[in-house]
Amino acid sequence: MSIITYFQTEVYSRFIELVTAPYHHTELLWITIPLIIVVLLMEFYFGRYEKEELGWNTAVGNALVLLFVAMDLYRYVYEHSLYKDFFNYS
User: Fold this and answer.
1) Which of 26, 38, 45, 68 has the fewest CB atoms within 10 Å around its CB?
2) pTM higher than 0.90
């Protein structure tokens, strides 16, 4: 099997499966939406501040991790409580 045939059959099909997974499994949207937001924010931030020192990079990275944790906690509360309780936790 040549590398081109392997790419067309295996890698391309897995890539399409990965990209369309949130459409087929809506529970993945809880993690993909913050992921897209984080990637865009990091791209904008580090594109503007190219000579940023290590301290700020660490702070931004920690804040992004907290965003992921918060989104996952909101997902858990939303799935395991009544509608009115979700807004009480907000």
Assistant:
1) 26
2) no
